[in-house]
Amino acid sequence: MLLSLEELTMEEHDLKAVAGLLRRAKRVAVLTGSGISAESGIPTFRGKDGLWRQFRAEDLATPEAFERDPALVWEWYNWRRGLMSKVEPNPGHKVLARWERHFSQFALITQNIDGLHRRAGSENILELHGNIWKLRCTKEDTVMDNFEYPLSEIPPRCPSCRALLRPHVVWFGEPLDSTNLNKAFLLSSTCEVLFSVGTSALVHPAASLPLAAAESGAKVVEINPDSTPLTSYADFSLRGKAGEILPLIDQYLMMAH
Ligand code: OAD
């Protein structure tokens, strides 16, 4: 659904102001969550048809669940790979891919594991929660690309040592990769503008990144149809879908060039 003319007019001021910020900015950071992929057809976690409303994370997304029943966990990830392999990046992903080339310093930090940012053309992506198209050997810790769907072997095994492979994603109770996380904090606290797009801003440490940006004096822009715990800290809260709002901001930004 497109924004009606009335809504557009109400938001026009904010959209123009955000485009104005971007026009002057050299260092821009964007944090994305599952909401940016919702318009591509991938379910979010906590929305109406969200994954965590249908499944228990404890049964499927913890190291204990994998130890208990690796085949069950892999069936679920195989099913999710199926959903993700059938969809395409949407205009929101595409605008962010363009912005990587537009700004002198542009950081794309995502909590998503779906790989859609890369398919949209982004190259430099900090994937805080890993990537569903990568597998990791539970014995040797090696990480390998794997785009097979459906998987030919469940649970899959390491081609070199036959140990179990796991999805290269972060599960509940596991720490994030510290190099990635430190980079994300550095980029967030040194940017001039940070966008928080399509995330409920509930899961830390990712949810702390916009706060770190705000504390360091960056302008924070939230794009989300709903309010979140971040909304009261944001300088601009653009209520709507990422696939509609990002292209509108991009249009205003490009008009000035
Ligand atoms: P959530 O499901 O918690 O939040 C999705 C957010 O996207 C909500 O605030 C929605 O209002 C918003 N949203 C929905 N449609 C949108 C659209 N078209 N445009 C913009 N926003 C939209 O998902 P995340 O915030 O990504 O972690 O969840 C964070 C982490 O929690 C995930 O990475 C995952 C999960 O447990 C792990 O698996 C480690």
List keywords for this structure.
Rossmann fold, 257 residues, 11 helices, SIR2/SIRT2 'Small Domain', 2 domains, alpha/beta
Structural overview:
By secondary structure, the protein is α/β, with parallel strands linked by helices. It folds into two domains: 164 residues, TPP-binding domain (Rossmann fold), CATH 3.40.50; 84 residues, SIR2/SIRT2 'Small Domain' (2-Layer Sandwich), CATH 3.30.1600.10. It contains eleven helices and nine strands. The strands form two sheets. The protein has a six-stranded parallel sheet with strand order 3-2-1-7-8-9, sandwiched between helices. It has a three-stranded antiparallel sheet with strand order 5-4-6, with helices on one face. Helix 7 packs parallel to helix 11. The longest helix has 20 residues. It is elongated. The relative contact order is 0.19. The mean pLDDT is 95. The structure holds 2'-O-acetyl adenosine-5-diphosphoribose. 2'-O-acetyl adenosine-5-diphosphoribose binds next to helix 2 and helix 11.
Which structural class should the secondary elements be placed in? alpha/beta
Shape category:
elongated
Q: What is the β-strand count?
A: 9
CATH architecture of the largest domain: 3-Layer(aba) Sandwich
Q: Give the SSE string.
A: HEHHHHHHEHEEEEHEHEEH
